[in-house]
Hints:
By secondary structure, this protein is mainly beta. Helices cover 14% and strands 50% of the residues.
Amino acid sequence: FGLVARREWIETNVLFLTVRNSHVTGLKRSISANPTIRQSSDFISLSNEPLSSLPPLLENDIPVVDRTGFYGYYDLKWDNVHQGARTNFEEAVRDQLGLELVPGNDRVEFLVVDKAN
């Protein structure tokens, strides 16, 4: 494609994914052996997934940085919300997974394109 790019760490606005309540039913240590994703009209569930798989689902123009301190694999389940209903999705993450997004500032690695043909 004729791109010339480099990786660069840039200080920017972020949302920190933090633990608000660790005693909720939607977030549990996984006992499953195989990762699976299930979605219905009522719920979405991820089984045997690291929490690092969640931030990309939460990003919307602002990078999300995992600051939960949770390691290993988890089963996550939350009510399905209509796509585009960002507020409802963030409420589901807070109320059903016990996690919240807190605004902050951090260094994030970006791919910077220097030249494109």
